Amino acid sequence: MSATATPLAVVTGASTGIGFELARICAAEGYDLLIAADEPQIEEAAAELRRAGGNVEAIETDLASVEGVDALLACLGGRRVDALLANAGRGLGHGFLDQDFATARRVVDTNITGTLYLIQKIGQDMRARDAGRILVTGSIAGFIPGAFQAVYNGTKAFLNSFALALRNELKDTKVSVTVLMPGPTETEFFRRADMLDTDVGQAGKDDPADVARTGFDAMMKGEADAASGWKNKIQSAVANITPQAILAQHHRKMAEPGSGQD
C-alpha cells in the first residue's frame, strides 16, 4: 500500500447519533469510510456523507452476530484499516426480570460479542503491521449499577474494562486503544430502549457531535479514555468513591419506568 494512500476508517453503529457524527468527522479529517449498522438507515447516512465529499461504503449487517461481522470484514477485502471506531450498541430499559430474554441477549451480543469479534479481527492486522487506532464506545453508565437498565450498564462496564485492558496488552506497540465514555446523549437510544417515560429519558442530553469530537480527538492523541463534558467527568469521579448501593438507588430514580411522568 502506498504511503500516500488515503487512510481508511471503519465505523459501526454509524446510521445515527454518535456513530454518524464519528463518521462525519472521519470524512472531514480525510479518511475513506466503511460504515455499518443493522438497519437500512445506514444507506441514508452514507448518502449524506457522500454529499459532503466523503468516499463512503456502507453495509447493513447484523453486528450482533459473528456472521454479520464477517460480512463487514468481507467488504474490506483485505484492505488496511487505519482506524476502527467500534460504536455499535443497543440499550434496554425496564426491570431485568420483566424483559424478554432474547431482547436482552441481543443487547449483550451487539454490545459485547460482535464488538469483541470485530476488534479482534481488525486488531490482529493492526498489531501485525504495528500501526492503527481503535476507539471503543463505552459509557459513564459502566461505572454505575444500572437499576432498570441492568443489562446495558453491565455491557458498558465490560467494554470500559476491556478497552483499557487491551490498551495495556498493546502498550509496546504502535496500536492505540481509547475508550469513549459518554453520558446521556441526544440520540435514538432512549426511544429504542423504551425509556422515554423515565427521568433520564426526558432530561437534557449532550450533543452527539460534541461527544463524537471528544472521542475522535482522544483517539488521535492516543489517550486512554475520554468522558465528554464536565458533568460526565465529575460523575465518573464521584462514582469511584460512592457506595454501589447508593449508585444503584440513584440510577433507579432516573431509569425506573414512569419516573419521568408528573
UniProtKB/TrEMBL annotation:
Keywords: Oxidoreductase. It comes from Aureimonas populi. The keyword Kinase does not apply. This is SDR family NAD(P)-dependent oxidoreductase. Residues 7-187 form the Ketoreductase domain. Belongs to the short-chain dehydrogenases/reductases (SDR) family. It is an enzyme of class 1 (oxidoreductase). Its EC number is 1.-.-.-. It comes from the Bacteria. Transmembrane segments: none annotated. One of its GO terms (molecular function) is oxidoreductase activity. InterPro entries: KR_dom, NAD(P)-bd_dom_sf, Sc_DH/Rdtase_CS, SDR_fam.
